[in-house]
């Protein structure tokens, strides 16, 4: 018998949707998404904790791609407090059934910029996750203070050398800074754990922003892939050409979309992925 290639998991980050936490999950499911990026605030809030979240997900037949999010962890000067927070997140996500924690590269202006210290923190979180058979996806962001590009993040991963520590490739953070998509081609596909797609209305020449302006765009004005000016299709082609077969989804923070009908927005999000060939 000839085996078939498993279909690529398609996910939706529920931050794009308005309404209740359970309603967001239902809208994603009805739009055809396999999985969601689940936020800790929803689990501990409306969903009533890990058991409640797990029950809703099981009822819908939905999976969790990753758990959101550990911020300002790497290079922190508050190691004890941030490590305690990290352990709490790892315990809750394990109870929910989420296989991977997203750790965003620090944007804390008061944190230390030592790459050795950042590597130590990443090694610690990868080891703690590994003890629970979980993975960590490290995300360089356009407004991150110390590690804001994929080559910088990839060099750190090589330094730490933990098999359960990989990268997030986020089209918004990569392409808004006019970084070449060839940077993705230089990363082995197995070191990419997660691909998040979004677009921006900013054109070339309008993208040389301060960290604060990048953050404002990223948290309020992202667009669905294909609705803006970023070369998201070229990025998708590079990922396919490099053999990436992991989770691909939509992470769009947009004030207008989160105020709209979540069922319509979820369907539009799925349509944007389909137009990219996923």
Automatic annotation (TrEMBL):
This is Sugar phosphate isomerase/epimerase family protein. The keyword Isomerase applies. InterPro entries: IolE/XylAMocC-like, Xyl_isomerase-like_sf, Xyl_isomerase-like_TIM-brl. PANTHER family: HYDROXYPYRUVATE ISOMERASE, XYLOSE ISOMERASE-LIKE TIM BARREL DOMAIN-CONTAINING PROTEIN. Residues 25-275 form the Xylose isomerase-like TIM barrel domain. It holds the Pfam family AP_endonuc_2. Keywords: Isomerase. The lineage of its organism: Bacteria, Pseudomonadati, Pseudomonadota, Alphaproteobacteria, Acetobacterales. SUPFAM superfamilies: Xylose isomerase-like (SSF51658). GO terms for molecular function: isomerase activity.
